[in-house]
Amino acid sequence: MPADSSVTAVADAFQKLTTSDQIPKVTKYGLWASWAALVLLAACLIVVSFLVIDSERRAEEIRLQQSTDLVVQSLESRILGTAELLQKTSMRLMQVQNGRFPMASAELSATTLMEERSEVTSIALVTKENEVIRSWTSSVSPTIERRQVGALLTEKELTAAVARVFITDTSEITPLYTLKDTQLVYADLIVPTPSSQQVLVARVDLSRLLTSAVRFSSNDRYRFVFLENGDYVLEGDREQSTDAESAVRYEAPLTLLGRRSDVKTTILGTSFDHALSATNKVPVFLVAGLSVMLALTLAWLFYYQRQQHRSHRLLAAEYSLRRAMSESAVVGLRVTDREGRIIYVNETFQKILGCEASDLLGQRPPYTYWLEDIHERLDEILKAGNPTPEPVTFLARRKSGEVFHAEVRLSPLEDENGRSLGYIGALYDVTAQALAREEVLAANDRFTRVVQSLNSSLAVLSDSDELYFANRGYERLFGRSSEGAVRLLESLRTLPEAEHREGLYDEATERWFDVRVRPLVWTKGENARLMIATDITARRELEIAREQQLRRAEATQRLVTMGEMASSLAHELNQPLAAISNYAGGAYTMLENGTLSSERCRTAFERIENQAVRAGKIIQRIRGFAKKTDAKLEPVLVSKVIQETMELANIQARKLNARLEIDLEENLPTLRGDEVMLEQLLLNLLKNAMEAVFESDNHTIRVRVARLEAHQNMVRFEVIDHGPGISDEEKARLFDAFYSTKSEGMGMGLNICRSIAELHGGRLGITDTPGGGATFSFTVPVWTGEA
Ligand code: ADP
């Protein structure tokens, strides 16, 4: 199997997920190594350049040394030569006797010598007493300070040297010196002559000698100067030397005439240019070029090393993240090879199953924790080749034996070339979800049962009137179509509220319904309407029957009231009728007497007419009151109710000797009610009150009408009497049918009064009048513009 080694590598990698991470350390060391290499290279370069410069310096030193030695040698040999030449010539230059010279050509000899030896600037013949007895000056390089004949030599060094020459009879040379205003170095050469009384003192221009010696060595890169006891002989040399401290120098001892003196004379050779500029530049450039290239390469290497370190760090961060994810508490991960052999499990996986990795590694399917074999299901899903495979839910068993609901998602594990290495399985403990799902299903089941068992018809309609759902109650009445629901909703929408307040009548089913509707979002987010239609036919029919009963009772009661008031009414009618009779009788008598003027006649007719109108009105009122009408809730004026009730009540009051007082609040609103019914209600209460106060001391009855304080949309009517009042016992029985304390009473009045008040949406109440008596009150709603 070709992928076998890769699989092992993967297994290894997964196993190492638990060991500490080494990658960033390795690259960090690499980075340090690069730094070290960079620093070492720089150090090497410095050392190499130092060595190159140093060796070049050494070579230059050697060259300078050779040149200096050459210069010294040529100087020394030249001086030696000059001394010898002087010595040879001395014979011709000395004074023999009495100021005479052995040869007349002394002058010539001296000139010839100085021409030959241009460094000799002057020659003087000096006696033992240091007196200059003769002197010659060079025409080639004339001396500035000429030694005058007859002058005495004063220079200490020179006189000492002259003295020594007289003793030793060998040539001497003085220490170097300079002359004022010259930048030249001189020395005096003292040469013995054949005469023991005279020596020759020749001033030698050593600067000139040095220049010609340097020219001879043909090396103009070097500068040579004289030093004496380590100090510059010429001031100018000192000044020049300070600016070339680092220059290559070499100091060679100058032993003139082979003799050492106290004063140590040396020649200092200095290389003008820096040593490097004088060397062969090709190797230097080669080394420099190579070094630069090496540095660049190293810097490049260093850059990539850093990049690598950075990417390794990122990789490590991602790797730890992945590791954290793999070890996270939620998902159990297992890796299998292509045969399904477990090669890695993470900690969560072990935690879920409650076992060790060693229990699982190496297992092949069916695994021990499977309670059911899901091999085929997994195979099928993998064969489908879906990039996000479906999860497989199954029952699993922990090591402890506990059974739980598990879910596994498999995804293929491939190497970088896309070759299959195996599979990664993510295992979840979905017990909670499974239980929750079961719970939801059970709840759903319960809910469906409840909904189905409802007597009400329940239907869910889409916006386009499609029936999404209907319960059994609905289907029983309207079938499986949305028609019934649509019909009910339509009547609910189109009928004015007053007409369906008590319920909707559905003609097709001949039933009454209480219909409620509310918007709903259906399962996939569609807008829908839920309609609940409760069949209220039975209740409604009962209500209608009761209403009809009430109507009949109330009509009867009105007639009864009229009956009760019959004698008063008759008396009331009797008065206008008696007056009419009186006026008619009077008129007739006058007519008989002939005293009926047309004026009186008109007055009599007018009075008769007035009384007839009065009687007519009373009859009209009685008729109006007794007439049976259907209850209608309309706008009613309080003033009208009061006025018309009072017309009848006053008739009775006169009979019963009661005093009626009216107390109306200002600006009372229009009421919503049935005028005749309200009058009947008020008249009943007034009649009861008048009967109650008949035997009392206080015959006053107050009718007070005002808005309710707490409920501004209600008006309260109060009938306040000061009669005997009603005991609590009586109050409890007051509304019992046929309860009456009166001999001729029917005991239905208050019952009907309460029904009328409730029909109007108000209440009938009884309280005790402060100071004795009873107060009956009822409330009526204010007209709000709606029937
Ligand atoms: P009826 O007037 O025919 O007796 P009602 O139902 O009108 O029947 O009255 C029932 C009883 O309530 C009366 O018999 C009376 O005893 C009592 N009652 C009614 N109004 C008053 C009142 N204002 N004061 C005292 N008792 C009253």
UniProtKB/TrEMBL annotation:
<feature type="transmembrane region" description="Helical">
    <location>
        <begin position="284"/>
        <end position="303"/>
    </location>
</feature>
<dbReference type="InterPro" id="IPR000014">
    <property type="entry name" value="PAS"/>
</dbReference>
<feature type="domain" description="PAS">
    <location>
        <begin position="317"/>
        <end position="383"/>
    </location>
</feature>
<protein>
    <recommendedName>
        <fullName>histidine kinase</fullName>
        <ecNumber>2.7.13.3</ecNumber>
    </recommendedName>
</protein>
<dbReference type="GO" id="GO:0000155">
    <property type="term" value="F:phosphorelay sensor kinase activity"/>
</dbReference>
<keyword id="KW-0067">ATP-binding</keyword>
<dbReference type="Pfam" id="PF02518">
    <property type="entry name" value="HATPase_c"/>
</dbReference>
<keyword id="KW-0808">Transferase</keyword>
<dbReference type="InterPro" id="IPR004358">
    <property type="entry name" value="Sig_transdc_His_kin-like_C"/>
</dbReference>
<keyword id="KW-0902">Two-component regulatory system</keyword>
<keyword id="KW-1133">Transmembrane helix</keyword>
<dbReference type="Pfam" id="PF13426">
    <property type="entry name" value="PAS_9"/>
</dbReference>
<dbReference type="GO" id="GO:0005524">
    <property type="term" value="F:ATP binding"/>
</dbReference>
<dbReference type="InterPro" id="IPR035965">
    <property type="entry name" value="PAS-like_dom_sf"/>
</dbReference>
<dbReference type="InterPro" id="IPR036097">
    <property type="entry name" value="HisK_dim/P_sf"/>
</dbReference>
<keyword id="KW-0418">Kinase</keyword>
<keyword id="KW-0472">Membrane</keyword>
<dbReference type="Pfam" id="PF00512">
    <property type="entry name" value="HisKA"/>
</dbReference>
<keyword id="KW-0597">Phosphoprotein</keyword>
<dbReference type="InterPro" id="IPR005467">
    <property type="entry name" value="His_kinase_dom"/>
</dbReference>
<feature type="domain" description="PAC">
    <location>
        <begin position="390"/>
        <end position="442"/>
    </location>
</feature>
<dbReference type="InterPro" id="IPR003661">
    <property type="entry name" value="HisK_dim/P_dom"/>
</dbReference>
<feature type="domain" description="Histidine kinase">
    <location>
        <begin position="568"/>
        <end position="784"/>
    </location>
</feature>
<keyword id="KW-0812">Transmembrane</keyword>
<dbReference type="InterPro" id="IPR000700">
    <property type="entry name" value="PAS-assoc_C"/>
</dbReference>
<dbReference type="InterPro" id="IPR036890">
    <property type="entry name" value="HATPase_C_sf"/>
</dbReference>
<dbReference type="InterPro" id="IPR003594">
    <property type="entry name" value="HATPase_dom"/>
</dbReference>
<dbReference type="InterPro" id="IPR001610">
    <property type="entry name" value="PAC"/>
</dbReference>
<feature type="transmembrane region" description="Helical">
    <location>
        <begin position="32"/>
        <end position="53"/>
    </location>
</feature>
<keyword id="KW-0547">Nucleotide-binding</keyword>
